[in-house]
Amino acid sequence: MRALILTTAILFGVLTSGYSQTDKKQKRTAEERAKLKTEMLEKKLNLTADQKAKVYNLQLDQAKKMEKMRSERSEEMKNRMEKHKEVMADNDKKLEKILNADQLKNYRESKTNQRERAKKHHQRKKREMIRKKKV
Predict the structure, then answer these.
(1) Relative to the CA of 37, which of 17, 48, 103, 118 has its CA 20 to 30 Å away?
(2) CA-to-CA distance for 131 and 11, rounded, in angstroms?
(3) Which residue range is the domain that position 108 belongs to?
(4) Beta strand segments in the chain, E
(5) Taking Cα atoms as reference points, which of 27, 104, 11, 20 lies closest to residue 70?
(6) How far apart are CA 23 and CA 33, in angstroms?
(7) Are residues 25 and 75 part of one domain?
(8) What are 9-49's pLDDT values in tens digits?
(9) Does 112 share its domain with 88?
């Protein structure tokens, strides 16, 4: 009896985690999101055909605005990253003029090590976030 319950629980967990992962990975268009939200509200609230059309238009407008905001944030982030890279490169050029050859070698090695540690840190954080989503 215990084995049956345990097997059922494990099977249920595997099936639901697999389903949720595939569902979350999909990028839906504004129209798809509006349709899904409208259908959900139609089922919950028993909307009339006229209400459904109005709700769909409202949801579509919201989805398009949200897409635009995400896009703007993405562009803003890219611009900030580019500016950050320019500042860092400029700083490195100035440092090269100040440091001697041995110091410059140590500085570059240190910078490489720091990048590797940061990369590992980000990978670990990403794995942790994925695990939390599964639970």
Answers:
(1) 17
(2) 18
(3) 100-135
(4) none
(5) 27
(6) 13
(7) yes
(8) 665 665 665 544 444 557 899 999 999 999 999 999 998 99
(9) no
